[in-house]
Each structure stands twice: as C-alpha cells, then as structure tokens.
C-alpha cells in the first residue's frame, strides 16, 4: 500500500503574501493548518521549510520554531524592494554563499537595492510631510 | 544626551555618525583596516575592528568580516530609523537560536515593514493622482 501524500502548502501562497504588502507575520500554527498537521514535529517543520523554499518564500527565523504559537515572518524573496533586501541580508548573515566573489557580489547588489529603497522611502516621507 | 562636535569625534565616532544619517554603506575591508591604523588585515586586527563596530552600534554583513582587505562589506547603523533598523532586525532573526522563544523581534520587524510599505503605497497613490490631474507633467516640467 502506498502511503498517502502529505498536502503541500497552497501554490497561491506567494500571491497571498504579495497582496498583504509582501510580508506577513503568522503563528507557526497557520502554516500547520495549511497542511493539515496538528503538531510542529521535526519532519513537518522540515517539509514546510522545503515547501516555502520551493515557492520562493523566505522566512525568519531561519529555522521554523517548533511551537504552534511562535510567530514567523514570511516574505516573497524575489519581490522588488524589501523582499529582496531581506533575502540578501539573510544570506549574508548566515554566511551564504560561501564563495568569496559571489559574497562580494551579493554585498554590492544589496547596497544598490538599499540605496534605491532608501531614496523611495525618503521621497515618500518628504511627500507625507508636504 | 551630549552631542559631540564633528571635529571632536574620533574616526569610529565619525563613521557611526555618518551611518546614522545614511543608514548603510558598502566599503572595502581595507578602508576599515586603515581606520583602525593597521597595515594588514590579520585575524587579530579584524577581531578588533568587529569590536569597534559593535561598540559604535554598527552592524556588518557578512556576519564574519573577511580577512582579505580587497573584499567588500556592508555596514549599517543599528540606530538608523529606516533601513538600518530593518537590516539589524533581519540580521538578528537570521542568527536567532531556534530555542529562543521570543516573538518580539518578528513583531518589531513586521510593524516596521508595514510602516515602510504604507509610506511607499502613499507615494505611489500620490504619483497616480498627480498623473491623472496632469500635475505630474507640470512637476516634471518645473524640475527639468
């Protein structure tokens, strides 16, 4: 008898996060609910992390906590602006990539993204005050 | 709080001061080594530089500064209200121990992101409204 496949996270999850501004703060229990799991066991958390990676969704903390009430921040990795900023920051914080030239490139990409992001924020703040 | 005059600040205080305004800055490790007053980026020098940066509330990426002086690093101010603060929270969360049961940083990051997103949305809405009324063209002409 073949084992029943565990349900995966919904394919439209990036879209759902996108309409919420590109990042959401959810309890782990919400993710468990999507796959019909009751407890945050090691195997479930591991496959949730794999599902999130496959959907291009980043999460913080880097390891999903093993308690349903704990909260995680989910973001769309390739979202122009803050999503990419968080993705690259997370990569550099955890020393990925390990290759020197590639790390330097990530630093430069992040600096460029930050400058663009900052200009947009400052412009918006100025307009808010005006 | 006593605010020091620019001319009274040492190199690290000036760097921290600049970053508090700019939020972030990418630079070669060599620049930091010179600032420290050393010729070469040895393990001991890098360790001291990391200490100096931490003392001045300056975060750095990658988390471990490279000992090769030609490498690039990104510095940010943990005291910067905008992007510096976001980087600091993401950095902390990326390194957080899974057993650490605090939710505070996730909440802080989420509310900070919401604030930044709402600012951007307001700006986009204003730009669209300006385009509709033709004010955008007028603004372009005056700034040209």
Task: State the gist of this model.
The complex is a heterodimer of chains A (130) and B (144). Chain A has helices at residues 13-19, 28-34, 42-54, 82-93, 100-129; strands spanning 23-27, 57-60, 71-76. With 130 residues, chain A is mainly alpha-helical.
Q: Can you characterise this structure?
A:
The complex is a heterodimer of chains A (130) and B (144). With 130 residues, chain A is mainly α. Helices cover 53% and strands 12% of the residues of chain A. Chain A has a three-stranded antiparallel β-sheet, with helices on both faces. In chain A, helix 4 runs antiparallel to helix 5. Chain A is globular and about 50 Å long. Chain A starts with 12 loop residues before the first helix and ends with a helix. The model of chain A has no long low-confidence stretch (mean pLDDT 87). Chain B is mainly alpha-helical and 144 residues long. Chain B is 58% helix and 10% strand. Chain B has helices at residues 11-22, 29-36, 43-55, 83-94, 104-133, 135-143, and strands at residues 24-28, 58-61, 72-77. A three-stranded antiparallel β-sheet of chain B has the order 1-3-2, with helices on both faces. The mean pLDDT of chain B is 83.
